[in-house]
Amino acid sequence: MTRTHDCDVLIVGAGLAGLSLARQLLLEGVPSVHLVDRRAVPPEKQKVGEATVQVSGYYFSRVLELEEHLLRQHYLKYNLRFWWKVPGLEGRAEGYSQSYIKSVSNIATYQLDRNLLEAELLRVNAADPRFTLAAPISGLEVEMGAGDARHEFSYTAADGERVEGRARWVVDASGRRRFLAKKLGLLAESPIRHGTSFFWVEGLLDPEKLTDLSAGEIRKRPDRSALGHMPTFLATNHFCGDGFWFWVIPLHGKTSLGLVYDSQKIDRAEVSSPEKLVAWICREFPLFARDLPQRKIFDGSGFVSFAHDCRQTLSNERWALTGEACRFSDPLYSPGGDLIAVHNTLITDAIRTTDGGLLATKVRLYETLARGLYEAYVPSYLLSYNTLGDQEAFTLRYAWELSIYFNFYVFPFINDLFTDPIFLPSFLRRFAKLGPWNLGLQTFLAEFQRWKLTAGLPVPRAPIFFDFPSIGPLREAEQSFYKIGLHPVEARGVLDRALSSLEIQARYTVAQVASTVLGTEEVLSNRAFVERIDLEHLRFDPESLGAAWDEARAIPGEMEWGFDPMILRRALGAPSPVSSRSAVPEPTLEPVPALAVA
Fold first, then answer.
1. If we measure between CA atoms, which residue out of 251, 219, 221 comes closest to residue 236?
2. Within a 10 A sphere around the Cβ of 443, how many other Cβ atoms?
3. Distances in Å between the alpha carbon of 461 and those of 83, 209, 458?
4. What pTM value is reported for the model?
5. Using alpha carbons only, what angle is made at residue 193 by residues 187 and 199, rounded to the nearest 5 degrees?
6. 352, 30 Cβ separation under 8 angstroms
7. Which residues are paired to 195 by β-bridges?
8. Cα separation values, 203 from 48, 218, 253, 374, Å
9. pLDDT value for 498
10. How many CB atoms lie within 10 A of CB 482?
11. What pLDDT does 2 receive?
């Protein structure tokens, strides 16, 4: 038996990306959406990828109108928090340095139980008569139509019936199966070579309770003045080392745990199963030995390598890719949900565009935007993963990246500007200016960390606590959350001011590094030294930094930052003089794709 099922949009893949896109299309009035998946949905196996950040949190809650469900069924997230062990104190929570954001984000973010969220998306979609689902299916075939011709598809339904139909648009959300990317020859490799191993345990693992302190002593820890009183477990907690990080994410009734690592620094054989990973993490961070070995593990998996790219993700031939079906970089800053949010928004606007000439114009802009936003992540993950092992280098790196994120990702997204034809060309021009600065700073900080490993600097003897927004430009960048409803011309002004602030932050980052390399705080207040920093041709060289300081130190004039430049210096302690300006070892960094630079 064969039956016919025509639709406006065929979505292949009923995971988070496909279900979210279906929801967004229905909310935007698309006449009919047909979703197919080769597996039964919702899945029984626990899904990884639980943390959201501001773009994805806003998208799932506000754009998809799931706010009530998220607040009822998932934890509100308390930002990202990073931990470093202090030698001799590794066995208890209060023996770790931390960098964090103490205040709660005004844009709500969530720790997602992916299975619950996908079940809810399926429920609200199924309540709309314009939505149909076929899962599980087999034998899916799609014949792409040329010009104005519709795409033809067929598959075998679960009851054995053959289904044939035509669709105006086809969207691939099939995840790592990458149905359309393979069919159309769009697969591209990523230069990122990181692996991951993860699992879930029953119950809540609270890092603060991995200690000998009593409940009262935990509540009244003197460092509460720095850390605050919000439950630490609500954060996405990252326990960091050279080239790796270990996440602890709370879900209702369970905890997600996982390691992400540079494959050149950690042997996968040591962490390839949940049991091996538990043993490894208890050796690396002994405080976990208090808890993890006694926990019941109920699911786990991993990837030898997870990053991949795609040559094209959107076409005026009326096809598109979203989610992991097109691109994935690295989970460090939880960008997967953001990429879904941006791609789905661009795809939805393209699908609603019926004029062929206008669609072609939009596709050119949207494809450039999608690739640019993705490529901007690459230097961070490719060049400077080693900075995870050093609190100073990583704090400077993350504050820089977060300022870019707030201004150039969050601000445009919450104002619906990524689909604004007036705003988008000017955005792309301004965003491109960040490329050389970002590439230079990522390389600079990576080599700075490698230098520190051989420079003989004293290691911390007590925990160091640092609130990221203490760095003034980051605190200023967060204010872009409140610039809502601006005309595109006004929005350009916001980005111009952001670029000026980011230039100041980049110069501060270099000056802070110089204060450590040269063993003096004076470089942070010397205007001549700061103004001579060449952000377009930045490289880490202790001898050059010393020579620049020798020339600038006698020139009068104090740098006016507009914020306290000594804030991180005070947290870290006074810099120690370095006996010699030893050169950084020869870099072993892989080349960066051209678009990551431009």
1. 251
2. 19
3. 15, 22, 9
4. 0.96
5. 100
6. yes
7. 261
8. 17, 20, 5, 35
9. 98
10. 9
11. 87
Tell me the average confidence (pLDDT) per consecutive run of 10 residues in the chain, 598 residues long.
Answer: 93 98 98 97 92 98 98 98 97 98 96 97 98 98 94 97 98 97 96 97 98 96 95 98 97 98 96 98 98 96 96 97 97 95 98 97 97 94 94 98 98 98 96 96 97 92 97 97 96 98 98 97 97 96 96 96 96 73 52 47
Q: With CA atoms as reference, report the closest residue to 383 among 84, 592, 82, 594.
A: 592
Backbone torsions φ then ψ of 549, nearest 5 degrees: -70, -40
Peptide bond between residue 575 and the one before it cis (omega within 30 degrees of 0)? no
What are φ and ψ of residue 84, in 5° steps?
Answer: -130, 135
Determine the residue type at 563. F
Residues 6+ apart with CB under 8 A from 416: none
Q: Give, in order, the Cα–Cα distances in Å from 241 to each of 51, 54, 79, 158.
A: 20, 26, 20, 48
Q: How far apart are CA 492 and CA 424, in angstroms?
A: 10
Measuring CA to CA, how many Å separate 129 from each of 23, 96, 161?
A: 12, 54, 22
Helix axes 423-454, 356-375, angle to 10 degrees: 10
pLDDT of amino acid 587:
47
- Could you identify the residue written with the tokens 């690739």? 371
Q: Which amino acid is at 451?
A: W
Asked if residue 187 lies in contact with residue 310, where contact means CB atoms within 8 angstroms, the answer is yes
Rounded to 5 degrees, φ, ψ at 83 are: -120, 140
CA Rg, the chain, in Å? 25
The whole-number pLDDT of residue 591 equals 52
DSSP 173-216: --GGG-HHHHHTT-EE--S--EEEEEEEEES---GGGSSS--HH
Residue 389 confidence (pLDDT)? 96
Backbone angles phi, psi at 244, to 5 degrees: -155, 165
